[in-house]
């Protein structure tokens, strides 16, 4: 029933909807990537088709007499439909199917709601039984709304409203009732029995539409770039909307059947189906959520159910045309109105008070553009706002995590073991950057650093930075230049290999950060900084520097307790005991460095006490404690 209604709504006639359901339904289910998908004309695509046909009829209007407009525009419309199939196949071949899922929900929600409202508005003329030529024009229908009440045909309105009521409320009595079929059958039977004077669907003749030679010749008038760019744009628009509609239906099918569809293969199948349907006079369509859900609930799990569906449609097309011709147009209008109601995203509209304001703004913007007949522009504008908002939020997250200056627990414990932890924290700032450094990485980060006051060293922990792009690096480089002007030394920690290569290729390393100021871990970095501070406080090159902590983990990298200048004391003896005074390490001349192990096992995190007899004669002994971190 919906295929007939969609065909009638486009003025191509009911046959065009059935041809689409047959050809697209068969090719898409055979070539597509969703086993349970049922493809046919859909509401979202219908609205685009109507708007495209409006625009293309306007293109022809100035070139031909009024009685020839439709015939001359027909080849252009068919060409647009063919191009939509080509574009859809290209989407699949170029592997774009998986990317369509990244369209933000507010954009899809706004588009759905706008399309649903348009479908309802476009059916008001036939619902009221008024045929004044404004059926395709949303603005005109709304502007001349009083015309509907002046010229109302009550029997059409009653049949249409009854159809809507039956379709919406019958399923509430019992699930699984084919409400649309029952509503159409009852309304059609009543109109036939009482012979009401109402407009019916045009007879469905089982033949394929063709284009005459004269009509084909008119096509050449529109093959210059002025017209062709619009035809290409309209074809792309239909393809994009059909793809979005189809893949949304595929996701729903996956959720119901616990399967995974192939989005790119699905688009190739849909594109091929729409191309062939257009070749034989059908309108474009896509994956139909309602039909797909009904198929799954009925037990369909393979392509066989889609093929059976097509066989039934072919039977109706060949042998049921006379019966279908008795369906009142107001009844089909009622069917489409229920489709429009279902498409509107009432769930989101009910939650509008709880949804972030920016999401609401994006959704309502898309609705406004859609209602103004600018569907693709509405999607593009919505996507643009969503991208800008996303970049802003990502930048805020990066800056917020950085502005907290969170020091990991283990780092804080290490600093507490230093000789003067308060002075170390005053002079060394650790900034944990979390998230990508990209073109949304704003100058507020620089202001955040300036607000920290005076310090001598800053450590950027990049362990949670998955990637950097060049735009983000330009901002990062500005930060480096600014810090160097303040005579601040810069260190990096936990830089992944890809980011390290980017830093080197852009000259950040070594122009602003020395190679030996890039560390594998923050722990290693701060211990090296403490070592430099302690060494700068001592005079002479023979003074021992004994680290107050180290972080062995058994991986062979920076696992040893590094005592600076120990080689100057070849007779030294070193002993280390735990808090129970049990010896855990002993060495002469420290030829074998302590790796935080005892008897081949890693020692637990704790304080350990060392004694260093510098000359091995018990005359000069240094004692202290060292903390092991895990």
Can you summarize this structure?
This protein is an alpha/beta fold and 630 residues long. 58% of the residues lie in helices and 9% in strands. The strands form four sheets. The protein has a five-stranded mixed beta sheet. The chain has a four-stranded parallel beta sheet with strand order 3-4-5-6. The chain has a two-stranded antiparallel sheet with strand order 1-2.
Which properties best describe this structure?
alpha/beta; 28 helices; 630 residues; 13 strands
Structure description:
The two termini are 69 Å apart. The chain is α/β, with parallel strands linked by helices. The longest helix is centred in the middle third of the chain and has 33 residues, at 225-257. It is 58% helix and 9% strand. The chain is elongated, with a radius of gyration of 37 Å. A five-stranded mixed sheet has the order 7-13-12-8-9. A four-stranded parallel sheet has the order 3-4-5-6. It has a two-stranded antiparallel ribbon with strand order 1-2. Mean pLDDT is 83; it is low at 402-406.
Contiguous low-pLDDT stretches (5 residues minimum) are 402-406
Q: Give the biggest beta sheet.
A: 5 strands, mixed
How much is the radius of gyration in Å? 37 Å
DSSP strand content: 5-15%
Label the overall shape: elongated
**Average pLDDT across residues?**
83
Approximate helicity band: 55-70%
Number of strands: 13
Placed side by side, the strands forming the largest sheet appear as: 7-13-12-8-9
List the topology elements.
Layout: H1 2-9, H2 14-31, E1 39-40, H3 43-61, H4 69-93, H5 97-100, H6 105-122, H7 124-128, H8 138-143, H9 145-150, H10 154-173, H11 179-194, H12 213-219, H13 225-257, H14 263-279, E2 286-287, H15 289-297, H16 303-319, H17 321-324, H18 329-343, H19 346-350, H20 357-371, H21 375-403, H22 409-416, H23 421-427, E3 428-434, H24 444-450, E4 457-464, H25 470-485, E5 489-493, H26 497-505, H27 508-511, E6 518-519, H28 522-537, E7 549-550, E8 573-577, E9 583-588, E10 597-598, E11 601-602, E12 606-613, E13 621-628
Parallel strand pairs: 3-4, 4-5, 5-6, 7-13
Antiparallel strand pairs: 1-2, 8-9, 8-12, 10-11, 12-13
Helix pairs in contact: 1-2, 1-18, 2-14, 2-16, 3-4, 3-6, 3-13, 4-12, 4-13, 4-14, 6-18, 6-20, 6-21, 10-11, 10-18, 13-14, 13-15, 20-21, 22-28
């Amino acid at each position: 029933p919906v295929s007939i209604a969609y065909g009638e709504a486009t003025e191509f006639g009911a046959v065009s909807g059935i041809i689409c359901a047959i050809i697209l339904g068969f090719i898409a289910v055979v070539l597509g990537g969703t086993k349970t998908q049922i493809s046919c004309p859909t509401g979202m695509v219908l609205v685009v088709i109507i708007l495209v046909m409006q625009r293309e009829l306007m293109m022809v209007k100035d070139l031909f007499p009024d009685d020839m407009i439709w015939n001359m525009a027909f080849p252009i419309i068919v060409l647009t439909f063919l191009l939509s199939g080509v574009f859809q196949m290209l989407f699949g071949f170029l592997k774009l199917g998986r990317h369509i899922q990244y369209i933000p929900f507010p954009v899809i929600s706004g588009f759905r709601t706008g399309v649903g409202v348009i479908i309802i508005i476009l059916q008001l003329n036939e619902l009221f039984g008024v045929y004044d030529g404004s059926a395709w024009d949303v603005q005109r229908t709304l502007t001349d709304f009083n015309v509907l009440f002046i010229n109302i045909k009550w029997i059409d309105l009653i049949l249409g409203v009854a159809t809507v009521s039956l379709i919406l409320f019958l399923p509430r009595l019992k699930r699984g009732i084919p409400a649309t079929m029952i509503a159409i059958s009852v309304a059609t039977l009543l109109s036939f029995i009482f012979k009401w004077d109402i407009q019916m669907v045009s007879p469905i003749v089982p033949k394929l539409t063709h284009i005459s030679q004269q009509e084909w010749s008119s096509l050449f008038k529109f093959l210059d770039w002025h017209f062709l760019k619009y035809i290409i744009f309209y074809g792309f628009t239909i393809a994009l909307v059909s793809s979005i509609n189809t893949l949304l239906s595929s996701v729903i099918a996956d959720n119901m059947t616990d399967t995974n569809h192939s989005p790119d293969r699905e688009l190739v199948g849909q594109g091929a189906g729409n191309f062939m349907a257009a070749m034989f006079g059908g309108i474009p369509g896509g994956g139909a959520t309602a039909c797909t859900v009904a198929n799954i609930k009925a037990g369909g799990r393979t392509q066989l159910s889609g093929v059976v569906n097509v066989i039934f449609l072919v039977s109706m097309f060949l042998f049921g045309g006379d019966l279908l011709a008795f369906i009142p147009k107001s009844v089909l209008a009622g069917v489409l109105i229920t489709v429009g109601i279902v498409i509107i995203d009432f769930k989101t509209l009910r939650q509008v008070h709880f949804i972030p304001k920016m999401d609401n703004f994006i959704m309502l913007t898309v609705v406004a553009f859609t209602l103004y007949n600018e569907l693709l522009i509405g999607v593009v504008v919505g996507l643009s706002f969503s991208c800008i908002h996303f970049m802003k939020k990502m930048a805020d997250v990066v800056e917020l995590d950085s502005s907290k200056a969170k020091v990991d627990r283990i780092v804080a414990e290490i600093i507490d073991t230093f000789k003067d932890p308060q002075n170390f924290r005053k002079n060394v700032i650790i900034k944990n950057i979390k998230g990508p450094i990209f073109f949304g990485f704003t100058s507020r980060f620089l202001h955040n650093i300036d607000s920290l006051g005076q310090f001598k060293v800053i450590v950027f922990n990049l362990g949670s930075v998955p990637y950097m792009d060049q735009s983000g690096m330009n901002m990062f480089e500005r930060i480096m230049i600014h810090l160097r002007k303040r005579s601040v030394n810069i260190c990096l920690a936990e830089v992944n290999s890809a980011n390290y290569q980017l830093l080197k290729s852009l000259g950040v390393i070594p122009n602003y950060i020395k190679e030996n100021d890039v560390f594998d871990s923050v722990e290693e970095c701060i211990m090296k900084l403490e070592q430099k501070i302690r060494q700068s406080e001592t005079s002479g090159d023979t003074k021992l520097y004994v680290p107050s902590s180290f972080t062995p983990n058994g991986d062979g990298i920076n696992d040893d307790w590094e005592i600076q200048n120990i080689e100057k004391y070849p007779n030294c003896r070193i002993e280390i005991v735990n808090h129970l005074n049990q010896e855990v390490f002993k060495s002469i001349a420290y030829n074998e460095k302590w790796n935080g192990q005892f008897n081949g096992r890693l020692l637990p995190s704790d304080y350990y006490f060392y004694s260093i007899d510098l000359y091995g004669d018990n005359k000069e002994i240094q004692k202290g404690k060292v903390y092991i971190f895990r």
